[in-house]
Amino acid sequence: MSYTKIAAIYADSETLSGQTVTVGGWVRTIRDMKQFGFLELNDGSCFKNLQVVMDAGVLSNYAEIAAQNVGAALVVTGAVVLTPGAKQPLELKAASIEVEGTSTPDYPLQKKRHSPEFLRTIQHLRPRTNLFSAAFRVRSAAAFAIHQFFQDRGFVYVHTPIITASDCEGAGEMFRVTTLDPKNPPLTEDGQVDFSQDFFGKPANLTVSGQLNAENFAMAFGDVYTFGPTFRAENSNTQRHAAEFWMIEPEMAFCDLKGDMDVAEAMIKYVLRYVMNKCPDELSFFNSFVDKGLLERLEHVASSDFGRVSYTEAVEILSKNNDQFDYQVFWGCDLQTEHERYLTEQVYQKPVFVTDYPKEIKAFYMRLNDDNKTVAATDCLVPGIGEIIGGSQREERLEVLERRIQELGMKPEDYWWYCDLRRYGSCRHAGFGLGFERLVMYLTGISNIRDVLPHPRTVGNAEF
Amino acid sequence: MSYTKIAAIYADSETLSGQTVTVGGWVRTIRDMKQFGFLELNDGSCFKNLQVVMDAGVLSNYAEIAAQNVGAALVVTGAVVLTPGAKQPLELKAASIEVEGTSTPDYPLQKKRHSPEFLRTIQHLRPRTNLFSAAFRVRSAAAFAIHQFFQDRGFVYVHTPIITASDCEGAGEMFRVTTLDPKNPPLTEDGQVDFSQDFFGKPANLTVSGQLNAENFAMAFGDVYTFGPTFRAENSNTQRHAAEFWMIEPEMAFCDLKGDMDVAEAMIKYVLRYVMNKCPDELSFFNSFVDKGLLERLEHVASSDFGRVSYTEAVEILSKNNDQFDYQVFWGCDLQTEHERYLTEQVYQKPVFVTDYPKEIKAFYMRLNDDNKTVAATDCLVPGIGEIIGGSQREERLEVLERRIQELGMKPEDYWWYCDLRRYGSCRHAGFGLGFERLVMYLTGISNIRDVLPHPRTVGNAEF
Hints:
2 copies of one chain form a homodimer.
Chain A: H1 6-11, H2 13-16, E1 20-32, E2 36-42, E3 50-55, H3 62-66, E4 73-82, E5 90-101, H4 116-120, H5 130-152, E6 156-157, E7 163-164, E8 176-178, E9 204-206, H6 211-221, E10 223-231, E11 244-253, H7 257-278, H8 280-289, H9 294-303, E12 307-310, H10 311-319, H11 337-347, E13 352-358, E14 374-382, E15 386-393, H12 398-407, H13 416-423, E16 429-435, H14 436-444
Parallel strand pairs in A: 3-5, 6-10, 12-13
Antiparallel strand pairs in A: 1-2, 1-4, 2-3, 4-5, 7-9, 8-9, 10-11, 11-16, 13-14, 14-15, 15-16
Helix pairs in contact in A: 5-7, 5-8, 5-14, 7-9
Pfam families (chains A, B): tRNA-synt_2 (PF00152), tRNA_anti-codon (PF01336)
GO molecular function (chains A, B): asparagine-tRNA ligase activity; ATP binding; catalytic activity, acting on a protein; nucleic acid binding; transferase activity
Keywords (chains A, B): Aminoacyl-tRNA synthetase, ATP-binding, Cytoplasm, Ligase, Nucleotide-binding, Protein biosynthesis
């Protein structure tokens, strides 16, 4: 901890010029010219490497160091020298170098291009590459920006539960959480699995959303947000789906759909600006090597007013272009990614909120509009991705909510506490869900969700 | 969102004095004196209520408002009036009040003392009480303080996976995560459960710690931290254990045990100071109604240098007082809570790090000391709680680690990637785990973990 971080050397180069510092890091490249040599050291504190100059006349162990393999861990003490004319703004003239941990000639991360598929097989090492170093640093910055945005606005961060005993959203396939014997589970007298003997005394699952729980807290704290892992046991093998992913779900009392969109728009812009300020080297790398238009798009989105259009209007616009789609658009249909992208990329050329969807294609808790046909829902669509946020004003009227629960064949007793919120001091409220990985993909241009998750979990994959 | 938060009124009372604002919140108390009345409104933006003055001469719906029950949601528009001599520093003179949502005379949270046990049966409503309003606001502030502490120091936040396919710590009972039919699981030819047909193609569990994964990232980023849920399927029903809880696990490269303790001590002090500054009303409430010595203890801890003592020395001290313990202390024994509390409360009277425990009672990944008997582990003990942090320097020597894995009868092939970290650029590194709920209990004086978790999960309990 008494070592100087490379990030600090770049940040404070004027002050540190001529000073002696000690740096611990890993060799990215090494060049031995017999009497002297260069190595690029990376310590993970920033995207950039530090160039270290080794002089055989100075280093008694020059030969040992020059023989190190890529990936070796070194501790280097030396003087910071500014090099204004050179490729890099500064370098470290080594006075001493110690080998902390060697590497081997068959170190899997040699200086060459590796495919993302190969790198997924060495997830424990891939953070040491430029791509993943940048991706996970952006991920960390974006996560903090989310917290900062909400905390600055007085939102209370709530850790909604991961294990739940009810499939509250009816959101489809869930993972079961159990301590029962997998082969010989206890049975009841009528031959069913006796879940009363399971850990929680009933069947339990991994949560698909913290929203209903978050509403409990919004009705006390006004503005709250969750930020935690959520799970889907969908047997789908796409670039955009993982079984385990992180979600942000704000929930706001005394807030309608318009207020909901205002917060969502402000949040996205805040995170974009934060990451653009905090991670310029990373974004510049992505812009050069992953997605040429990235910086321009982020700048554009951060400074645009997002569009807002009703589902009904959107369907009118889209159905005029039905010849361009695999799936025809008609009122009542669920919008496909091709429709969403057409709307945000071709029609609006910026992010757009689509509002007031048919109730049949949306969840039970969304507020029924006066037309009795649509609900106060919104999806935020962004160029290059499609849907990034789904939100709604919630149904705050007890009788309307109960009717909806029954219409959908759900069991009202499962929702006694959710309905209680409408019994005691109910109020307008709204919220949304942001899939965090989608946001990181948007910020980096990375197109596969497996490459923005530290250790992705998908069908058939839970390694590391 | 265009409403003014009560927190903002208190914070900006000079500016807002005489101004008209609109507030949305819930009735905590209501007093009707026929021609005028008072109500206390809480909107969750801060601990304090707002006193609203109702005048029957001003409000055309005075009777309707005066008849509202505790818990009702109201929207109040009125002028902010400073009341320097009065019990509260300001009040709102209502010009209009609208009922947003009524409550009922049998609203469960009447103005009287409710037992924590009762309140656990109405977890959806308990955030509306003073106790839980304060507890969860402190929890949110402490969570943010943790992020701020690490981000300010350049640590990268890593979302280590929740679902894992290996019991890497060997840390005991885990929850199984599955999509197999619970009653008739597929079987292999030899009659065993065929986990190749399970979602991940093998048995999977909920994580007990993100540490081993965090090490992957520390070896790339230098300093990283996790902050996420962890799980224990222990059938224990105590005040200090939950099946689902949140943990913070920093991991630092080029860091030894001393550096590890330095970070842990700085982090605890930072969080204490942050919460003391951010939540004075909440802490003052806890100090008055939950734990009389709280404020004094927090101030003392935030300004003390933590003690540091080796396990061997601690055993010497403790064994002289064996007559005071249920369990006798001897070299080699695991310290019980009674011993830990004696050490921190009686001997040191402040937090203390105990270091260098016998290897037999600690985990396989902890670094073996030169004495071959102890490992570079540390527990941080705090008055009133006992252990709050457990950490260690990790074994960075491949051959020592592999020997330890075999000694303990673990399977080396399960740890191929963990051992790889020692093969390619290994370096000294260290980290620790902080149970977040323990920290919140410490900050609030609340003695039952069920009362610092939004919706606690324990044996037999996964309601809400």
